[in-house]
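User: I would dearly like some help making sense of a protein record. This is the protein in question:
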Amino acid sequence: MPEPVPLPHPVTGTPFASPVEPGTGWPDDVADCDTPVARTNAQVRRLAKGAVGPTDLDARISVCRACPRLVAWREEVALTKRAAFAEEPYWGRSVPAFGPTDAPVVIVGLAPAAHGANRTGRMFTGDRSGDWLYGALHRAGYASQSESWAAGDGLELDGVRIIAPVRCAPPQNKPTTQEKRTCAPWLDADLALSAPHVRSILCLGSIGWDTTIAGVRHAGWAVPRPKPTFGHGARATLRTPEGREVALVGSYHVSQQNTFTGKLTQTMLDEVIASL
């Protein structure tokens, strides 16, 4: 495997080695050398529960090393790179949520793409899936711009927060059941931050749907039984422990497999976002 060579960030021009070390100045990196690192399932649970506010939670997520297979893969990709990005540094770390915690809409994806968020360090940034999602969010008034190509590119979200059940890029985009379980406390903590404000949760794909239902049940929310079935445009009503209703909404994932084949069209995505 090649030795990490510092390369210029595409926005700031600052050189970074891949994977990026915390506290070295990557745009929006809130971790530093003193951020506690989770290396086991138990440590993920403890650090997620003990995070003090969203910034501390994001920092702890971004340095997590609890899943050896995912850590090895994300760092291998960061070192070997895709040819198109050979002159760029890769984030190569776990990816925290993106967007304000008081947003009324939460979007739950799957996991970072190897050459997307694993490269840029920001959810759905730097690949065609992100182009689709942020284009739709921009048309709906949730995103300040339709393009998302690098952390620090000026993109801001208003009224929406994006989280994921798995925070590291998995091989073949397929996290194992154990990896999803290990990462679940980070999702629980993010959902807890959003819970007082959220009115709608949009799940991109069946994994996002299933893990969201599991997460809110774990938090004491009421979920209809039998368990709501995932599908594009599927809807269900959740209830917080305080009795407030939150809409659970399904959408096919914005993966190239779905968008290239026409399984998901821009009109379909715009319509489901408009329903939030």
Summary: The first strand starts at residue 7 and ends at 8. Residues 177-194 form the longest helix (18 residues). The beta strands are 7-8, 15-16, 105-108, 160-163, 200-204, 235-239, 245-251.
